[in-house]
Q: What sequence folds into this?
């Protein structure tokens, strides 16, 4: 069954198509919405330095490991683990679960972004002082954000139901470059505002006194989230990758692009934020409050036009990411359960839709309703970002390092010796020894420092339970 599956596997249309799809998965709300607000809440420069450390020492190696495991097995997450070692099925299952949970809040924010395309032309920019309050009122409303979320999710369903090469690739190719160019433009506007230098200081002069165990966990979790790692997303994408492709160079390209966009988003937002006298610690509203203000200050039709283009690009960046999340779950149902692509897409997204409704309402009418001390939105967010992804990454590293054959890994990474990869030994030592230990230390110190301890314990329990029941998958 799996042999047949392998032969028929769809493939990326071109190398450019793969890079754009993988980078499209990585670059998303994580870079432009989440990275800046986490940076703001965790003290600026120091967080960025730690974040870059996580990317360099953990993210890059895990990216290569996911590509390698995916292409070697030619299977999506669960199948990839299972085909090598049945006892490891749970690690794949945990990934699918993470995909579900992330999709329990991601489309809510995607919906906000979509809404802002239209709000940009319907008076949002007319009163710059009110932009902050407008955002809070909007996300807390009972109906409006739900409508946008549903539209956003419907677009995902449409793309994923159409299949790999057709849908995802086409979407990725067009709007990623647009976003890139637009960010450069916004950076120029932002740093030239009077008072912008305070923002540059905030970004580039690390204040180490604000760093705690939580900062490291937040940075590590963000590195995984932003690079789409720790849940088998890149395993799944790698499984569609041609045997001739150079894995290390693809990994480096994707990681560099993702990191560049996150840093650019920071550069676009903080100088303007300080110039406008806003609070860096305001949380999830940051990009939706600061960026429209930049455009409002440009005035008139031009500001409006740029605002529309920005939110269209952000929405598409979000789409190419959420599509990859949905794809992980769908690919699992197709590969392991033999469900048809369309059916798998509809069933999975129906469940996600319900979770998103709860998440969205937790911003307003249901804000009093908490699970283990937090609302639904935060529940899904913290559970995935602070626990599942890092542990998923740790499991993958242990799996590749200790349960796969070193020579076989080497053959896969180097395309049977055709590609030279001088850092193979270093990479292998990283995934086998360094990364598992590093993640364990960061997770331990982060979890003990964090307020939501019961949530952390719940997350660990879920992992144990999924390990026990994974035999059924
Ligand atoms: N990386 C995406 C972003 O930054 C989100 C995402 C897509 C993701 N696929 C993922 C996060 C898989 C974790 C795992 O917006």
A:
């Amino acid at each position: 069954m799996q042999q047949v599956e392998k032969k028929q596997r769809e493939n990326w249309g071109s190398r450019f198509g793969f890079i754009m799809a993988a980078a499209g998965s990585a670059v998303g709300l994580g870079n432009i919405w989440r990275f800046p607000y986490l940076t703001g809440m965790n003290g600026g420069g120091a967080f960025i330095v730690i974040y870059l450390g996580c990317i360099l020492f953990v993210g890059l190696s895990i990216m290569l490991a996911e590509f390698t495991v995916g292409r070697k097995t030619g299977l999506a997450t669960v199948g990839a683990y299972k085909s090598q070692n049945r006892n490891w099925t749970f690690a794949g299952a945990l990934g699918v679960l993470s995909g579900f949970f992330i999709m329990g809040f991601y489309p809510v924010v995607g919906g906000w972004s979509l809404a802002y395309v239209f709000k940009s032309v319907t008076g949002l920019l007319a009163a710059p002082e009110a932009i902050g309050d407008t955002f809070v009122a909007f996300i807390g409303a009972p109906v409006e954000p739900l409508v946008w979320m549903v539209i956003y999710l419907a677009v995902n369903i449409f793309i994923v139901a159409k299949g790999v090469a057709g849908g995802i690739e086409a979407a990725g190719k067009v709007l990623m470059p647009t976003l890139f160019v637009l960010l450069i433009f916004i950076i120029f506007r932002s740093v030239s505002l009077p008072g912008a230098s305070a923002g540059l200081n905030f970004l580039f002069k690390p204040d180490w006194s604000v760093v705690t165990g939580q900062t490291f966990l937040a940075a590590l979790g963000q590195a995984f989230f932003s690079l789409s790692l720790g849940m088998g997303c890149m395993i799944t994408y790698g499984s569609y990758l041609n045997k001739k492709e150079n894995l290390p160079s693809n990994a480096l390209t994707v990681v560099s692009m993702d990191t560049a966009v996150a840093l650019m988003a920071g550069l676009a937002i903080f100088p303007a934020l300080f110039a406008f006298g806003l609070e860096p610690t305001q949380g999830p509203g940051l990009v939706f409050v600061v960026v429209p203000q930049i455009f409002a200050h440009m005035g008139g039709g031009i500001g409006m036009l740029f605002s529309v283009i920005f939110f269209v690009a952000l929405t598409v960046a979000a789409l190419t990411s959420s599509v990859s999340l949905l794809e992980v779950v769908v690919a699992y149902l197709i590969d392991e359960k033999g469900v048809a692509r369309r059916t798998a897409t509809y069933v999975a997204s129906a469940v996600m839709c319900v979770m998103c409704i709860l998440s969205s309402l937790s911003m307003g009418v249901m804000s009093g309703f908490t699970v283990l001390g937090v609302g639904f939105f935060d529940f899904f967010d913290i559970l995935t970002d602070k626990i599942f992804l890092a542990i998923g990454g740790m499991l993958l590293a242990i799996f590749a390092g200790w349960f796969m054959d070193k020579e076989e890994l080497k053959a896969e990474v180097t395309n049977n010796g055709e590609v030279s990869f001088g850092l193979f030994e270093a990479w292998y030592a990283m995934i086998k020894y360094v990364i598992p230990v590093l993640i364990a230390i960061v997770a331990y110190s982060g979890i003990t420092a964090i307020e939501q301890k019961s949530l952390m314990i719940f997350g660990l329990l879920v992992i144990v339970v999924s390990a026990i029941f994974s035999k059924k998958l």
Observations:
- Residues 25-26, 28-31, 102, 225-226, 228, 231, 233, 321, 324-325, 389 surround tryptophan (CB under 6 Å).
- The CA atoms of residues 195 and 277 lie 9 Å apart.
- Residues 2-470 form a domain with the Hydantoin permease fold (CATH 1.10.4160).
